[in-house]
Write a structure and sequence with these properties.
Shape: elongated
Number of helices: 19
Strand order of the largest sheet: 2-1-3
Distance between the termini: 106 Å
Largest sheet: 3 strands, antiparallel
Structural class: mainly alpha
Helix content: over 70%
Length: 443
């Protein structure tokens, strides 16, 4: 039943403002007259959500899909931090940034946040209603800043945290761009040679009836496979990608793949150190911002992005609730257990029985280094846990950067050697019969 807001006058001429529920406007007017009032204004009362939506529509919300990009949110956080440091009211700061934003997900979220604040919500409450832009980590840090009266300091920490994360992400992506591009172009060029060039040589050899050497016969067989089953070239990687993605939809499938990714040859250390750096910095930022330790571990677990680390943080969280410290359960649960799905991936990707043997050797390795555990232990004893967590994150950030540079330095010559070997094999396999043919014609 709709609610009507009315203004009226009583028999003495006094102005009355009130609300009334009725099925329609006529019934509302009749009820007000029965109360002895003369109606001067009557309108349907809109609820808080309707008012916010109407205000948002007037201010130019546009259609958008997906979440706010991490880079865009990082820039917004730094700008909001600067405006707050300058002493501007939070609503004024948000409206300035909303007006400057390009149409899209962030602008829509900022419009909603501004309207929620104008309707009486706090900043953290308003941001919590826009999950496309502000996750639990963001909202809880803002909430801690509001409770402690240090919102500008929290925004600075949040901006620094996001900028460091973005910097590390850019470094890893930038390092991976070159080898991925080289491999893709190399595969395309080799496929073109096998499908278009080699068959032309096969016709020449057939016309002259030349006896072909073993290398040339192997090349011809490979070329025939490419010509007959060319669709497998994009099909196999896509099928493998979809299989991995579907496997990770299930609990044990995700655990097995995440465990394999932590221990995989070459790139496993990079994945592991990157997760340790990110989770320790997240936890340190939350602790420094005054978020309760249980809530901080819950948020850190959600931002880990790896089932093995999530399981470890779950066990640490249970121990903390029972009154234990952080370091002891962290050390006790840093060795992941055997998992059959992880063993399958090792068998599949790393050469059958050799892969299984390698997995049995590497499965006992800790995912949380003793140095991390010791630093956390010292932080708990001295009351400076946040500073120790920051130091751990800085150390592992540096290790990730060094490891990335080392891997890229190693991959460049390896790619050149592999490509050179492939091209050399093709050239030799094609020219051996030609040399034989020329010699026969000369004779």
């Amino acid at each position: 039943m709709p609610t009507y807001q009315f203004e009226a006058m009583d028999s003495t001429g006094k102005e009355i403002k009130d609300v009334i529920e009725a099925l329609n406007e006529e019934e509302a007017q009749a009820t007000i007259r029965q109360m002895g009032y003369f109606v001067t204004r009557l309108a349907v009362k809109k609820d808080r959500k309707s008012r916010i939506q109407a205000a948002a529509a007037k201010r130019g919300k546009t259609f958008s899909m997906g979440k706010v990009k991490s880079k865009v949110l990082t820039t917004f956080t730094r700008q909001l931090s600067i405006l707050q440091d300058a002493g501007l009211p939070i609503l004024r700061s948000l409206k300035i940034l909303e007006e400057q934003s390009k149409p899209g997900a962030l602008k829509n979220c900022l419009i909603d946040v501004c309207d929620e604040i104008e309707a009486g919500a706090t900043l953290s409450e308003a941001m919590a209603k826009s999950p496309k832009a502000f996750d639990r980590l963001y909202v809880n840090m803002i909430k801690a800043g509001e409770a402690g009266g240090a919102l500008e300091i929290i925004l600075q920490r949040l901006a620094e945290f996001r900028e460091r994360s973005e910097s590390l992400k850019r470094k890893i992506k930038g390092a991976m761009t070159y080898p991925v591009a080289v491999v893709v172009f190399a595969v395309l060029i080799l496929a073109f040679i096998m499908i278009m060039i080699v068959p032309s040589f096969i016709k020449i050899f057939a016309d002259f009836g030349t006896t072909l050497p073993t290398m040339t016969l192997i090349l011809i067989d490979i070329s025939n496979l490419f010509v007959q089953y060319w669709y497998l070239l994009p099909g196999v990687p896509f099928t493998l990608y979809m299989f991995i993605k579907m496997t990770r939809k299930f609990k044990h499938g995700r655990i097995g793949w995440d465990l394999f990714s932590l221990k995989m040859p070459i790139f496993g250390q990079l994945v592991e150190k990157n997760i340790v750096a990110r989770t320790m910095r997240t936890l340190g930022t939350l602790v420094a911002s005054g978020v309760p330790i249980i809530e901080a571990f819950t948020i850190t677990r959600e931002t880990a992005g790896n089932a093995i680390f999530e399981d470890m943080f779950d066990k640490i969280l249970s121990s903390i609730k029972e009154g234990e410290s952080i370091a002891i359960p962290m050390k006790a649960n840093s060795v992941p257990p055997f998992h059959p799905v992880a063993a399958f991936w090792w068998f599949f990707f790393v050469g059958g029985p050799v892969g299984l043997l390698w997995y049995m050797v590497k499965m006992k390795q800790k995912i949380m280094d003793d140095m991390v555990v010791n630093m956390v232990d010292v932080g708990e004893e001295t009351g400076e846990l946040d500073k120790m967590l920051y130091k751990v994150a800085d150390v592992f950030d540096e290790e990730v950067a060094v490891l990335t540079d080392s891997l890229m330095s190693l991959m460049e010559p390896l790619l050149i050697i592999c490509l050179g070997g492939m091209v050399g094999f093709i050239v030799i396999a094609l020219f051996l019969p030609l040399i034989s043919l020329i010699q026969n014609l000369s004779g």
